[in-house]
Amino acid sequence: MAFEDLGELLAESIELPVAGRLYTVPAPTAEIGLRTQALIHAAAVAADGGRADEQVLGDAAERNLYRDVLGPTHDEMIADGVTWPTLKHCAITAMVWIAQDKTAAERYWTAAGDPSRLAPNRAARRSPSGAANSTRSRGSTSGTSTRPAPARGAGKKARKPR
Length: 162
What we know:
- This protein is mostly helical and about 160 residues long.
- It has helices at about 5-10, 30-45, 55-60, 65-70, 70-80, 85-100, 100-110, 115-120, 120-125, and strands at about 15-20, 20-25.
């Protein structure tokens, strides 16, 4: 078995439909991909109350990240006069694609960036058949046992009366 050409296996671009036009965002360079992942990781750490790498966040702020992640599509969108919210949504969608994958980027795109729309709703969490999940939970691992205690005297040799 031989390896297939990697270009045939990977999604080398994403297509974003905006106001009747389809914008193709090409895959970024490795440098831009690595920087984007570092930035997203640092932002997630900061959002969780941790100490983020200020140099990563500072470096990202100094660069034109939206232009980098959108590539030549950035200039096309500017020339077409897209609005700021549209450009921002497209750029963040590209960042999600770069840091995660195409499926995550599609979820972000469809949710219009609204985090509450990203979480699955109650109906989506249910199984397609509507049947209950038959997998039992592990239960507590606190060290206590739910087995009944053995009956008194069980397992001991009976004593002979004296």
